[in-house]
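Entry 14. Ran structure prediction on the chain below.
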Amino acid sequence: MTLFRIAICTIVTTIASLNLGSSATAQSVILTITGEMSLANNKNTIDFDRDSLKKMAWKDVTVENSFLDGAHSFSGTPLADLLRFIGVSSGKLRALALDGYSVEIPVSDAFQKDVILAMDHNGKPMRIRDRGPIWIIYPKQKDLSYRSSDDEKMIWQLRYIEVLAD
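Output, structure tokens:
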């Protein structure tokens, strides 16, 4: 419930601070992570802007998914790298989008399925109206480790992640 209240209070601020016609500026917070993690301040909150996420790692993937026709290129920070950085190796994540959609994601997915926090689509930064600034992408794998049940976890317009205790 606390995450929901934080989200409501800051969604308006976030939308106002992001120019809907362009990508987020380097100083704009695009992702806030709360909850149980090793690397956090006293409030168990960490904010990231695009540049800080991009400095962690950057991965390019070409994938097909149920939301777009044909193959598309996505680039972003591997979720596993972000979780290692904040000291999370197990449990679940609650992801919350700007529109209020939320979903729980097993931490194991990040390490087993090459999930990325996509910030670029076909070489261009994603805008809010284009499912940005962050879209969680589950690449379809040739070994069929991708399942249609992963579709519900591919949340776009991601703004918050809450790390849930085991």
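The beta strands are 29-35, 45-49, 59-65, 68-78, 92-97, 102-106, 116-121, 124-125, 135-137, 158-164. Will compare against last week's run tomorrow.
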